[in-house]
Amino acid sequence: MSSEQNHAQDSADTAEAAGPRPRRLTYAAVLAGLEGVALVAGGLWVLVLGLTGDPDDRQQAVTLGITLVVLALLPLLAARGLLLRRGWSRGPAVITQVMALPVAYNLVQADSMAIPAGIALAVVAVAALVLLVNGETTRALGIKGPGRAE
After folding, report:
1. Helix 73-83 to helix 90-109 angle, to the nearest 10 degrees?
2. Residue 105 in contact with residue 98, Cβ under 8 Å?
3. pLDDT of residue 38
4. What secondary structure letter does DSSP report for 142?
5. Which residues are CB-neighbours of 118 under 8 A, at least 6 positions away?
6. With a threshold of 0.70, does the pTM exceed it?
7. pLDDT surpasses 50 at 77
């Protein structure tokens, strides 16, 4: 093992030894996991409709469905990492939330049934961001601020 891997393992062990997982970290993991599950469900729905329905462009529908399922891996892996208190997991979780905000905005701008989905997505993304940047969450993940390295 390299010294970087040893340091990463020591950081993970320190985070686990620090006590029980904070509720805020658990809530952030649950929200990220829900987003991942929603992406899988949406991707499978689009994929099935693309294969069995009459889409304008079958290839585009299938590609979108597969893309959504693959994109679901990011929040699902982040959620698992957050539950296991891995410091690396906060980055993908934050990226997921930042990417969700423009999607939510576009859904809210639509004149359709997508407006409630956009509002729900925006609320979840903002709530998850607040939970992820919370001091209790960063301490539980063993993340130190700039200039605070050991």
Report:
1. 130
2. no
3. 94
4. T
5. 103, 104, 105, 106, 107, 108, 109, 110
6. yes
7. yes
